[in-house]
Amino acid sequence: MKKTVFIFFALLAFVSAFAFSQDGDSKSEPQLVQDSGSKKSNGSFSLTVEAAYYPDSAPLAGNGERFAPVSGIYGGAQFGVTAAYDYVFPIPGSSALTKDNNLAVGADFQISPGTLKPHIYARYSPIAFLVFGAGAKAGTGWEFLGTQCLASYNRASGKFDNLVPFKNFFYEFDLSATFQFDAAALWPGDWHHIVFMATYDFRLSGVSSQADCHPWVWEGDFPKVNGANYYANAILGWQLPFERVSLVGLQAEFEGFYNHDQIAAPYRNFDIDFCRVNISPLVVFNLTKKDALFALLYFERRRGFDSKKGYVNGREQNELEMNCSGGEWYFRRLALRYVHKF
Fold first, then answer.
1. Strands, E, within 183-290: which ranges?
2. CA-based angle 112:118:122, to the nearest 5?
C-alpha cells in the first residue's frame, strides 16, 4: 500500500512538473490552495462564515458496507465565524516552475456557539505544483444546545462528561504536503481549467487533561484519543469562465488514526483506526470580486456496528463498547461557507 501511494505521488509530481514547464502563464495555475500571483509582499484579511444543517440518520445493525437512509428532518446544526490574516513573502524565481514561489504566514481565530479556536500556520511553495504547510491550533469549548464541544468519556456511566472550559484545552499540530495541477497548462483554453488538488496532513492532536488512550470528543465529533492521526483531501474541479459560478467539482476527505493500539484495550472493538470518508459535491459562487459562497453536500462513511445498542450494567451501551463492523454510508450535512476578502 505504501509503495503504491509513493508511486502515485511520484507520477503526479512528474506530470505536474511537465505541465507547468509547458505553459508559463500564471492563469494556468490552480487557485485552490493559495493566490500567489503578486510579486510584492502583501497582507490580506478575510472573514469566513460557516453554517451547516444535519438531518437525522439512525444507524443500522449489520455487517459489511451499507447505506443508512435519512430517518428524521433534523439532527443538528452548526455555525461559526473565522477571522484570518495572511502575509505573503514572494521568493524570486525565473522559470515557469518557480516564478510565483512564496512563503505565506498567517493566523486565524474561529468562534462558534460552543468553541473558541485560535490557529497559526505557514505555507511554503518551492515549485508551482507543490505546497508544504505547518500549523498549530488550540481551543476550548462547552456544551451548546445538546452538542458537547469538549468532553471526556466516563466508562462507569457510558456517557461523556463535559470538561471545564478554559481549564481544559484541545490542541493540534500538523504538517502537510499538497500537489496541485491544472489541465489548462497542457491544454490551453478558457474551458480547459480542470484542476486537481491532493493534500496529506499528518496531525498530532489531543486534549490537555486527558491521559493517552482515553476517549474524548471535540466539537461534537466522533470519539478520539490523544496522538498521531491523519487527514487527506482530494479535489477534482472544473473552473468555469463564468462571472458568478467559478468552480464545480467533487471533494473526497479521509480521516483516521494509524493503529488500534492508540485507544485503551476496553475500547479496541470500536476500531479507532477506522477510515472515515466524506464525498462532497461542491459549487463555488463568485458573488462579487471580494465575496464567494461555497456550497457542499456531504455523504459520509461512518462506523457500522454489528448490532443495535444493548444494555450494560442497567444502562444503554455507548458506541465505544460496541463492535465496529464495516462502514455505513449516510447523508451527513449540507454546508455553506461565505468568504469576504477585505
1. 194-207, 216-218, 227-239, 245-257, 276-286
2. 130
pTM over 0.70: yes
Residue 172: pLDDT band by 50, 70, 90 thresholds? very high
pLDDT in tens, 193-203: 999 999 999 99
Closest Cα partner for 193 from 237, 131, 235? 237
Residue bearing cell 474551458: 191
Counting Cα atoms < 13 Å in the Cβ hemisphere of 41 gives 5
Residue 182 in contact with residue 30, Cβ under 8 Å? yes
Burial class (CB in 10 A: 0-12, 13-18, 19+), 277: middle
How far is residue 247's CA from residue 244's CA, in Å, rounded to a whole number? Answer: 9
> Is residue 247 packed enough to be buried (19+ CB in 10 Å), middle (13-18) or exposed (0-12)?
buried
- Nearest 5°: the CA angle 287, 51, 145 is 160
pLDDT digits (tens, 9 = 90+) for 85-115: 999 998 876 666 677 788 999 999 999 999 9
Separation CA 148–CA 163 (nearest Å): 9
Residues 290 and 44: their CA atoms lie apart, in Å, by: 11
User: What is the C-alpha radius of gyration for the chain, rounded to an integer number of angstroms?
Assistant: 22
Q: Is the pLDDT of residue 8 over 50?
A: no
Cell of 28: 494556468
Question: Could you give the CA distance from residue 227 to residue 118 in angstroms, rounded to a whole number?
Answer: 20
DSSP state of 144: B
Retrieve residue 130's grid coordinates.
Answer: 507543490
